[in-house]
Amino acid sequence: MSGEAMLVFDEGLTAYDFGHGHPMSPVRVDLTIRLARALGVLDQLKVVPAPVADDALLRTVHTAEYIEAVKRAGQDPDHPDPEHGLGTDDTYCFPRMHEASAHVVGASVEAARAVWEGDVLHAANISGGLHHAMPGMASGFCVYNDPAVAIQWLLDHGAERVAYVDVDVHHGDGVQTVFYNDPRVLTVSLHESPTTLFPGTGGPGETGGPDAEGSAVNIPLPPGTGDAGWLRAFHAIVPDVVKAFKPSVLVTQHGCDSHAEDPLAHLTKTVDGQRAAYLALHDLAHQVCDGKWVSTGGGGYAIVDVVPRAWTHLLAIVAGEPIDPETAVPESWREDIRLRFDRVAPMRMTDGRAPTYADWSTGYNPDTWLDRSIKATRDISFPLLGLDPTY
């Protein structure tokens, strides 16, 4: 499938860097690219550099006042601007912050453009997925909202409907906010319960604005949810709502912070469960929109043991050549980890788990938080999309 799928990447994208000690280290992107290259995944992809989004493109989602605030903060990082969410406890200021953030946006828009204009069928920007940024404020490590700008670009260039599916452990609140009252965009987010995790939103009752009821679908999951529960929830809701919406293109966000080893959240998925989710989204793109699929990265803070393997699986699926989970991690990559971090890297591309689950059709168990949550979302969202919430 070489030439039919694309990765938008250049080394400049690792300049999105909040500095030493911040959990969102650009090292995770670098390590992913190195692992994907060592496994031959990049040979299956058309790799192109990312343009830098100009102000006019950023203003399709962000306010002019906010863009100017980001520029000022990047020129003088020692003076925070909490009114715009800049220089806070989670979103630090750093030099040339505007340029680095606009570069990430440019990468996602280039991926969207290539898919929409037919250059490739699938395209990815693993440095993207900055889904918490609001039109006028930074939030949750996110300065500019690259998925939202990419979706708006698709709408502005003829896409009648865009479905956005977010599998990050945190609610995709920024993307939802941007399109909450736009009936052309379906936002679907699976995330840890807002009662236990930032940003505290994403309940099943958040279903879209008055002109777009049903356009937001939220599936909050109990802390501790692993592969079986996560996949049960995904398959009980996501394929049905996306198929009902009939999008022209599928945009997805692949934060891998739902893993058991992630230090910032409380789900217990494995790399194997994350790979299963990526495969399901790939298949869904082919079922609903002729394969038009734009994928981004997102969160993920176990930067050696989890992120590189998870996103290398994602890139391999984007390329149409999934990696066998039992594949050995190349010794050259493991040696690099030993020399750079003085630690032992994973031996294989698997966590040794089979990502099986009980389909929703097997029955509803009201005694479990998970099933009550799934049922709440189905009961609220399905009728708004013309679906029957029963089994």
TrEMBL record:
- UniProt KW keywords: Acetoin catabolism
Pathway terms, separated by semicolons? Ketone degradation; acetoin degradation
- Which top-rank group of organisms is this from? Bacteria
Return the Gene3D superfamilies for the record: Histone deacetylase domain
Q: Among its keywords, does the record have tRNA-binding?
A: no
- In this chain the Histone deacetylase domain maps to 22-316
Instruction: Fetch the SUPFAM superfamilies from UniProt.
Output: Arginase/deacetylase (SSF52768)
* InterPro entries listed in its UniProt record: AcuC, HDACs, His_deacetylse_dom, His_deacetylse_dom_sf, Ureohydrolase_dom_sf
The family database entries (Pfam families) matched by this protein are listed as: Hist_deacetyl
Is-annotated flag, keyword Lipid metabolism? Answer: no
Q: Which family does it belong to?
A: Belongs to the histone deacetylase family.
Q: What is this protein called?
A: Acetoin utilization protein AcuC
